[in-house]
Structure of Aspartokinase:
Amino acid sequence: MALYVQKYGGTSVGSVERIEAVAEKVKGFRERGDDIVVVVSAMSGETNRLIGLANEIQEHPDKREMDVLVSTGEQVTIALLAMALKKRGVDARSYTGGQVRILTDSAHTKARIQDIETTRMRADLEAGRVVIVAGFQGVDDHGNITTLGRGGSDTTGVALAAALKADECQIYTDVDGVYTTDPRVVAGAQRLDKITFEEMLEMASLGSKVLQIRSVEFAGKYHVPLRVLSSFQDGPGTLITIEDDETVEKPIISGIAFNRDEAKLTVMGVPDIPGVASRILGPISRENIEVDMIVQNVSADQTTDFTFTVHRNDFERAQNILEQVVTELGARGCSGNSKIAKVSIVGVGMRSHAGVASKMFDALAAENINIQMISTSEIKVSVVIAEKYMELAVRALHTAFNLDKGETVCE
Ligand code: ASP
Ligand code: MG
């Protein structure tokens, strides 16, 4: 007998019929003898609808009240699911985050979980009940309702699994697992049986949006085995777990991630003296603009070109700041390009294999794709290229690293 925390996302509970289907699924697990804690999201579209209502009143409504508002979405779902289970003769009880006592800090709309009270849930499980908890919400020390940020139900699921020492946290969604890349871009993309927390974090931060990033961090930190699977069809899904010893069997690359949300800025002809990087990026960070990749080239005439990327939404602001910086530094000028994309290969197998980056560059060169910037970490190589070549690059890399359907990805 196992204890599973199962999280069902918005589309999985998007209608009364879907909620009934989830109840049917949970009933099946109970009949097999497993203990189940269910975490649910709001019905699909509901959180956006609520935010829309608030925005009709004010562009930036009070954050405390925003949390009171958006937390209602999940409260609807827990009650409906409890009813659907009871109708099927399955004893169940629903709880809001505050009722469980998912204690968070007071950072409204992006609160962090600090502690979870498990007594009540354990008593229910002991009594043979399914426990249903509203995702995405908690309560602060003063009894205020808080929410955990968009997509926060994933984090509720993982946090409950950690607190209850569950055997697995299962995230039910509308895709049947984590893929080698987005199947909409590469038809031959395949579901991965397994991926490590580290790889998943890289994939998520690079734009693959299956799970809220914070939930993956949480699961990695507390070693909660995490499984992504479909609530619409049966299947093993993808297990996100710690790295095991079978590295020999592992593919070098687990996935290809991409991101169109970046823009590139260059300051040209900067005097090559100490402190220049800080004088360029200082004003950028003081404006709360996050910088991703940074490249600096030294030229023969003692000046350098300094290039970095920011989120596309921050592009114009960053450009305005740089115009000021150019004058101050006596640089030759600045330029910007928002029609870029970042493509990354991710895999823990890189640690034990040489030549991964050059294989990537070869594959891009064979397609005549120019690389504008490169950055690497222990398990990732990212390149910036022209946006119009992004899909071509992803497909070429997917093939070059033997990820296409029909090739063996695992074992
Ligand atoms: N309902 C919330 C949202 O749409 C939380 C979640 O679904 O995870 O962001
Ligand atoms: Mg989600």
In short: The first helix runs from residue 16 to 31.
